[in-house]
Amino acid sequence: MGKEKFKTILLMTLFVLSIALTKQLWISVPIPHDMSFANQMKNMDSKVENHTKDIFDIFSPQSFTVNFGGGLHTVFYDDVYNIWAEVLSILQNSSSKKDVIIEEIEVQRWMEENKARSIKMDFGFSMPVDALGSVFKGKEIEVLDEKVSSVDSILVSLIDEDSIYIADCNEGKYYRIKGKGEKKNLFNIMNTIEAESHSPYYAIKDIYGVENNNLMPLELDNNIPKIRVVQEIDPTNNTQVEAFAGTFFGENFDFVRKMVESNGSVIYMYGYGQKSLKIDASGMLEYIEQMDEEKSRNSVTFDHALKIALKFVGDHGSWSSVEAYLKQANAMEKGKKKGYQFVFGYRLNRFPIYYSDEIGSEAIEVHVMGEQITYYKRLLKKEKIAMNFLENNEDTLILSTPEVIDQNFDMIMEDYIKDMNIAIQGTMMEEILKEVLSSIETVEIGYYYKPMKEPDKLIPVWIIKLDKRIYYFDVYTGTLMYRGEI
User: Measuring CA to CA, which residue among 164, 156, 175, 171 is closest to residue 104?
Assistant: First the structure.
């Protein structure tokens, strides 16, 4: 190598190294005490966002299944192709016309459309259909409201140009909306996805020869690295903690007691316990407010309650740099007062994050009673700026899902026999093997945070869900990370 070329490479390396170190320094340096509260909050995130999260973004589907036809599919978890906006436009146009027809269909028809060329979006929970009006900026979806109460999946056929399909799979309700909507842009999106590199998914029956139409990937088109993470809130950083606490109690702490527990948790309590805030050693924020008769008196709609929750989260921690989505929504009742529980998930590196039960399984949870927030939990992990090019990355090959299943099949089958209360007789093992494979409902990939094992990392896992069990397996080793009952 020539001397000048060597100098150029050395200078480039030093330049990249200086940028990485500078970013790392900004993360680790404490915020000065003499900075104003507003400036403290701004420095917690490099990108400051308005308080209220866009309701369009928060309703983003949790997964997208692209069906190419001919038994080939792919699945991804973020809307990198802007499918959601396009489908909403088609749905609104299709369901607002006077001559639109909405008919209930059988599940077999829904399954057939999934095999053909189409795109399906899954929300992960049953969403009130009138809540979609929020996404349309208050415009009603007209005739859709009359026949459909809730939706957890939307499927757009690219074969039948006049139809779009919606379903509440949890309730076993499937519908066809016949009303022509312009699909040209969605055709272009499909062609783009097909032409680019993507992870192929196949029906389980095509892989194992059992009666199971659910999808499973054989392998991924790219490796998924572990992510180094840091706490969003560091309880040992007094300035940072007080900045967060100030969003709940104001800058004046005259009527607020502060306690520091032996395990490092910090607790703030207002008055005689009307409001309390705890930030524990893991960085989890938990806020509890006693129910106020005046604020909680009036019942609010799903739409209004969600807007209250979104603004509260924005005001107390912000949505900045968080790729969040509504993961679950449930009606709830306390002391004859009605409200809603909202659970929000988030993604890093295009994949969803899952937490172990050691710290609670949800990233953000909000309870809205009337117009009052009575409970708020927040636990987010931020990616640490790491100089990966200087590290020796040993994780080079992801195990395929059949390899992971084969490696752990004895355990999975033992659980299945126990859960189904099966008495083993003679040559039943082959039949049970088929039953186990037939009972697989989903095979997904995501990141798992298990602080007792690797407190500073998110571990990529295969998530395999059966009728009554769910398993998380390390994608590189096949090691069991979590096993739970459903």
Answer: 175
